[in-house]
Design brief:
Layout: H1 2-10, E1 17-21, H2 25-31, E2 37-40, H3 44-47, H4 59-70, E3 77-81, H5 90-104, E4 108-110, H6 118-126, E5 131-136, H7 153-169, E6 173-177, H8 181-190, E7 195-198, E8 206-209, H9 211-214, H10 231-247
Parallel strand pairs: 1-2, 1-8, 2-3, 3-4, 4-5, 5-6, 6-7, 7-8
Helix pairs in contact: 2-4, 4-5, 5-6, 7-8
3-methyl-2-oxobutanoic acid binds next to strand 6.
Length: about 260
């Protein structure tokens, strides 16, 4: 596992890091061939359960989906989001991180925040938990969504300070969510660990997207989401063919019967 982490860090300034979300085995087994990191994101709350906030995602939700994902991951680094209120203090954080890792055999966990959670991150790293940081828009902390961060001096300086702090605490990479391009560039150039951007321009060492968004399965209109394929159409074609063959008694033919 430590080799997988080292490999990710060594990619900085060499080649882009590909990170994608997965919430289940079948998706993970496809993504695994093309991704460096598979993230079981708490975005599953909105994507799968229709929650209007990731705050409603439970530890159990994360563990059950991650167990499924684990079965599809072979080579990628598997990171699991710690859900809201599962890391309110360092004791709780360590207990829950260990619970997630034990149940899912994931390689690392991700937490949202900078200075505010510094003692928690310090404690996790001290106890040999691999931690990915997350700065910028922090979905677990806000109600309004996807307003970019770091355009102005104060916010920019705070983000840079937080990124440097996370690096000094020992996180192995940091997700930068919806951070202004120039600030993302400054952060990426100021730290030795990789930054993984989402809505933070190409000035990051890697990129992450919610897979369901980029394939058009989850219908969303977020500015930074590009729909690379419309998988809903492909699924519909298959379903319509099935329906038509059942109605016309073409399926199941002898070939598909006992
Ligand atoms: O929950 C999630 O999927 C995430 C990524 C979008 C970074 O945190």
């Amino acid at each position: 596992m430590i080799n997988k982490i080292k490999k990710i860090i060594l990619k900085k300034n060499k080649s882009k890091i590909i990170c994608l979300t997965s919430y289940s085995k079948n998706f993970a087994s496809i993504i695994d061939k093309h991704s460096d990191i598979i993230l079981v994101g708490d975005s599953l709350g909105s994507v799968l359960y229709n929650h209007n906030t990731t705050r409603k995602v439970t530890l159990n939700n994360m563990i059950e989906h991650s167990k499924s994902v684990r079965m599809g991951v072979n080579k990628s680094l598997m990171v699991v989001d710690m859900p809201f209120e599962s890391y309110r203090n360092k004791i709780e954080a360590l207990k829950n991180a260990r619970k997630i890792i034990k149940a899912t055999k994931c390689d690392a966990i991700k937490l949202e925040g900078g200075y505010k959670i510094k003692e928690i991150i310090k404690h996790l790293v001290k106890n040999k938990i691999f931690v990915m940081g997350h700065l910028g828009v922090l979905p677990q902390s806000i109600s309004e969504k996807f307003k970019s961060k770091g355009k102005f001096k104060n916010e920019r300086n705070k983000l840079i300070k937080d990124a440097k702090l996370l690096e000094s605490l020992g996180v192995f990479s940091i997700v930068l969510e919806c951070i202004h391009s120039n600030t993302a560039k400054i952060i990426t150039n100021s730290i030795k660990i990789p930054t993984i951007g989402i809505g933070s321009s190409s000035n990051c060492d890697g990129q992450v997207l919610v897979t369901d968004d980029l394939i058009g399965l989850n219908e969303t209109k977020i500015k930074f989401v590009k729909k690379f394929v419309n998988i809903r159409k492909v699924i519909e074609i298959g379903i319509k063919k099935y329906k038509s063959e059942v109605i016309r008694r073409k399926y199941p033919s002898k070939k598909y019967s006992y």
